[in-house]
Amino acid sequence: MELRGTILQPELAEEQPDEGKGGADRRLPLRTLARWRGGCRGRQFPRLVDFHPRTIDFMRDCSFVLDVGESLNAPLISYSGQLIDLACGGRMEGTISTSHAGHTIFFHIADHHLEVISNRTPIGVEGEYTTQDGVMRRYRGILAPVSENDQDIDHIVGAVSWVDGGPAA
Q1: Do the bridges between strand 76-80 and strand 63-67 make them parallel or antiparallel, or are there none, so unpaired?
Q2: Distance CA 12, CA 149 (A)
Q3: What is the pTM of this model?
Q4: Which has the closest alpha carbon to 35: 18, 15, 52, 17?
Q5: HEC per residue, 94-144
Q6: What's the pLDDT tens digit per position in 46-82?
Q7: Half-sphere exposure of residue 129: CA atoms within 13 angstroms, side-chain side
Q8: pLDDT of 134-166, one tens digit each?
């Protein structure tokens, strides 16, 4: 299993992704990063009300929000899109992020939330894992910080896309 987190460079959000193989895979993180930057409006971080995935059509179903205000080590999932819920086998909203099994896409992308806290910037995450059904899943996503007071990161918004391959070897 490959798991990688990288700090995203803001200028990459302006680039057009390749339309070839994997192009759609890159589009969601780049569009999300551009939307995050636009939501900052002169601040270091956007407020959740300005960057909540429930209000952003292209990310609504494939995103989630972690509430890190109460616990950095076990954040609450305060929002999860329908595709995230389906990929994880049930409703994620209202659960603790660390309580999910390693065969879920949520587990693999949300596991990087502490990198966002320490770097104080959006990070890109990509990798692959084997689902509970034995299918190889490749994913690419982004985790982005938000703050009500522009100092303390109180939520992290994640958006992820994935492609299922054949049975894992």
Answers
A1: antiparallel
A2: 27
A3: 0.82
A4: 52
A5: CCEHHHCCCCCHHHHHHCCHHHHHHHCCCEEEEEEEECCCCEEEEEEEEEE
A6: 999 999 999 999 999 999 999 998 877 778 889 999 9
A7: 21
A8: 889 899 999 999 999 999 999 999 999 998 887
Which tokens in the block code for residue 66? 């972690």
SS3 category, 38: helix
Q: Which residue has the tokens 């522009």?
A: 150
Neighbours of 143 (CB within 10 A): 29
Structure tokens at 45: 């971080």
Please, is 138 exposed, middle or buried when counting C-beta atoms within 10 Å of its C-beta (0-12, 13-18, 19+)?
Answer: middle
Domains identified in the chain and CATH numbers:
3-167 (3.30.450.20)
Closest CA to 160 of 114, 109, 112: 109
Query: Which residue reads 């209000």 in tokens?
Result: 55
For the beta sheet containing 63-67, the strands, ordered from the edge strand earlier in sequence to the opposite edge, are: 3-7, 123-130, 135-146, 155-167, 63-67, 76-80
End-to-end Cα, the chain, rounded Å = 12
